[in-house]
Write the structure tokens for this entry.
Amino acid sequence: AQKITQTQPGMFVQEKEAVTLDCTYDTSDQSYGLFWYKQPSSGEMIFLIYQGSYDEQNATEGRYSLNFQKARKSANLVISASQLGDSAMYFCAMIRGKLIFGQGTELSVKP
Amino acid sequence: ETGVTQTPRHLVMGMTNKKSLKCEQHLGHNAMYWYKQSAKKPLELMFVYNFKEQTENNSVPSRFSPECPNSSHLFLHLHTLQPEDSALYLCASGVGDRETQYFGPGTRLLVL
């Protein structure tokens, strides 16, 4: 069965510092996609970054990068130079036919 | 127009009411999805539509009835809901089963 695990229910980071949000996944498939979404208190799920299982390079999108370690089945999100507006819930998700979400990590950025 | 819109944004209804949630996507996608997000729980996929055809019903109670008249519009008809159905209902659209899904802002539903 496919499963996504986020072990950090809550994280704090100082403004302008980098933070890593952990995500591990479990699948027997060889072909899959991994996503990170941000959900502010308004509720909208905002797509941040995508990593395909066959992509050899780690995905990057601006201040977001995905540390993909296929053998370890981990897909951690790294946010560089945190901003106050980064405070939100962050969800890791995997797609193979349908999108499966982890439990989420609540990130709080302190000024 | 923003990519995926949902109306209403907030809804309060009694257990005997009938209401509908609406989702519209302007991205040219062929797949649309309904998700339920309860407090402190991961998103749960409810329904999937591909080219207007329902391809997945994730064991959702019949008091939730989806409708997809075309690839751009998706409805969720609600009837005799229970208080435990109170949640954030998110609509998403996408291109295929390995592609990024884009979400609407959600409807916060409270059932009294």
